[in-house]
Amino acid sequence: MIGSRGRVTGTIGPGLIGEVLLNVRGGTEAFYAYPMDPEATFSSGTQVLVVDFEPPRTVYVERWQPLTR
After folding, report:
1. For residue 68, what pLDDT is reported?
2. Which tens digit of pLDDT belongs to each residue from 8-58?
3. What's the pLDDT score for residue 42?
4. Are strands 27-35 and 58-63 parallel, antiparallel or unpaired?
5. Which pLDDT score, from 0 to 100, does residue 45 have?
6. Residue 4: Cβ within 10 Å count
7. Helix, strand, or coil here: 2?
8. Of the four, 20, 36, 56, 67, which is 20 to 30 A from 47 by CA?
9. DSSP string for 14-69
10. Which residues contact 47 (CB under 8 A, 6 or more apart)?
11. Angle of CA points 7, 69, 50, to nearest 5°
12. What's the predicted TM-score (pTM) here?
């Protein structure tokens, strides 16, 4: 899970349990999500990177930053 890129489907932020869709085992699955930075907020549609995983379905995310050339 760590290193996967996903899309926010339920707002993630302080005091909120958000939701992220991730590609897993050839399909798409929903995971509970928290921001790695406790002050960060991510709205629906934001692309995020999974930086930590707690089984069975909880991830910690940060905003996806594509590499620039």
Report:
1. 83
2. 999 999 989 999 999 998 999 999 999 999 999 999 999 999 999 999 999
3. 97
4. parallel
5. 97
6. 17
7. coil
8. 56
9. TTB-EEEEEEETTEEEEEEEEESSTT--B-TT-EEEEEEEETTTEEEEEE--PPP-
10. 5, 6, 7, 8, 63, 64
11. 25
12. 0.91
Cβ count near 45 (within 10 Å): 8
Residue 69 has pLDDT above 80, yes or no: no
Among candidate residues 35, 34, 36, the one with its CA nearest the CA of residue 58: 34
Rounded Cα distance between 65 and 17, Å, is 22
Exposure of 31 by Cβ count < 10 A (0-12 exposed, 13-18 middle, 19+ buried)? buried
